[in-house]
Amino acid sequence: MRITDLISTQIAIGDPPLLNAAGLHAPYALRIIVEVVTDQGFVGLSEIPGSDRTYKAMEELKPHLIGMDVFQFNAIKNLIREKLGGVEDSRGETPWDQRLLVHLFSAIEVACLDCIGKKLNKPVVDLLGGRSREKVPFSAYLFYKYEGAGGDLGFEVDHDQSGWLKARQEEALSPKQIVSQARAMCEEFGFQSIKLKGGVKPPEEEYECILALREEFGPNVPLRLDPNALWSLKTATKYGKKLEGLLEYFEDPVRGQEEMGQLAKRINIPLATNMCTTSFEDIPQSIALESERIILSDHHFWGGLRACIELNRICHTLGRGFSMHSNSHVGISMAAMVHLGAAVPHLDYALDTHYPWQVDEVIKGGKIKIENGFVDVLEGPGLGVELDRDQLQRLHQQFLNSGLKERNDEIEMKKVDPQWEFKLQRW
Ligand code: GKR
Ligand code: MG
User: Fold this and answer.
1) Catalyses which reaction (predicted)?
2) For 263-308, how does the pLDDT look when each residue is reduced to its tens digit (9 = 90+)?
3) Do 172 and 117 reside in the same domain of the chain?
């Protein structure tokens, strides 16, 4: 089955003013929707983080990918390396991963798997080894935030909303407000574990938030805190000790494998990462330094769904936990995450997702349902989702109107506080 066309569409999805270590989310998050068209009439879908650079690289690859067989993943990977291997390609210092090649390969791989699944009339989970579970657990993902709905409303709110849609617009800057955000999110989606995005407030305040969440939800709801590497070793040791017994895991409190390894020896909380061990090449050093106990995989930057299956086996063999990282996304990424989450033999923790924060959707039938904190495995064929072309067009227009070219949370934060600067270490 050969590729006859590759259509990449840049979209912008409304995103509320969420705060993180790198600043503030823009009113829109950027994604690229990729369609791989084949000579047998099957069209495969995928979704990756958007930027002009990624879009242009995909367009550059397009003529070379046309004619390739959707089953030949190794040849496709070699081609991407051959055509773009010379580019500067590092993950950067931001909480999110900025590498180009892994994202491009993931986009093509997922869309090809969707084509293959459609051709065989099988869900993607069956191409990854079949179901290890019938439904996939997700965790609540809390953010400090300014008041506002994002999208066209920016910092304003839509007063016609109720329930979670109302709560997602509310300011959350204090422990009390974070607890009420958590209550609303858990009531709506039934999440049974909770992550707080940290690296925003001074550590004492983030610690107080964790205490408030524990008091509200009790010891049976696992809690996680993710300062995105903004704390010094000294600060992370001090607060790590105070957080012992409160956290299920502590995500990227400090920067780099060496400091993570040192911290791991000082505190009794498992460390997790989506920042310091992010590729297979990082694993030997991670084992030598014992930098984390849990790897938060992500098919968008680990090089596709099949790579994450390999990672899962490596984690299990080496006694490491496995879960999943996320960024603002819509339903195609969600579907891919669910197929992967259903297939991996060893799933130790509920997965991250930003999905509740996004209202826009690009798939037919609206948003995929999260119930009691779980998503049922999608039946397929392929990813089991269909593109809603009217929505795709609307979200593409939204992208054009937004004027955004790439994600830059520092620039967005400076619009609110011109003195604010991104720092590698803040506390
Ligand atoms: O969306 O602000 C955000 C997050 O900070 C995201 O960019 C991170 O990549 O969720 C991510 C994380 O777990 O570090
Ligand atoms: Mg993280």
Assistant:
1) D-glucarate = 5-dehydro-4-deoxy-D-glucarate + H2O
2) 999 999 999 999 999 999 999 999 999 999 999 999 999 999 999 9
3) no
Note whether 256 and 181 are same-domain residues.
yes
- Tell me how far the alpha carbon of residue 134 lies from the centroid of ligand 1, in angstroms: 27
Strands annotated E in 130-210: 135-137, 140-143, 194-197
**Residue 17, domain CATH:** 3.30.390.10
Is position 425 within any domain?
no
Q: Name every protein residue with a CB atom under 6 angstroms from any ligand 1 atom.
A: 18, 20, 95-96, 197, 226, 228, 274, 325-328
Q: Domain range spanning residue 176? A: 127-376
Give dist(CA 80, CA 102) in Å, integer. 9
Please give the pLDDT value at position 230.
98
CA of 333 to the centre of ligand 2 (A): 17
Would you name the residues annotated as active-site residues? 197, 325
Residues 6+ apart with CB under 8 A from 182: 140, 142, 194, 213, 216, 217
CA nearest neighbour of 185 among 160, 177, 323: 177
Q: Are residues 251 and 324 in the same domain?
A: yes
CA–CA distances in Å: residue 339 to residues 15, 39, 101, 305, 417: 25, 25, 23, 9, 41
Examine the pLDDT at 85 and tell me if it is beyond 90: no
Share of the chain above pLDDT 90, in %: 98
- 143 beta partners: 197
Counting atoms of ligand 1 from 1, which one is nearest the CA of 325? 13
**Number of neighbouring beta carbons within 10 Å of residue 97:** 21
420 in a structural domain:
no
Determine, yes or no, domain membership for 419. no
Mutate to test the pocket of ligand 1, among 30, 141, 254, 326 (most ligand atoms within 8 A of CB): 326
Give the Å distance between the CA of 352 and the centre of ligand 1: 10
**pLDDT tens track for 125-147:** 999 999 999 999 999 999 999 99
Q: Which atom of ligand 1 is nearest to the CA of 96?
A: 9
pLDDT of residue 9: 98
Q: Is the pLDDT of residue 87 over 90?
A: no
Model pTM above 0.85: yes
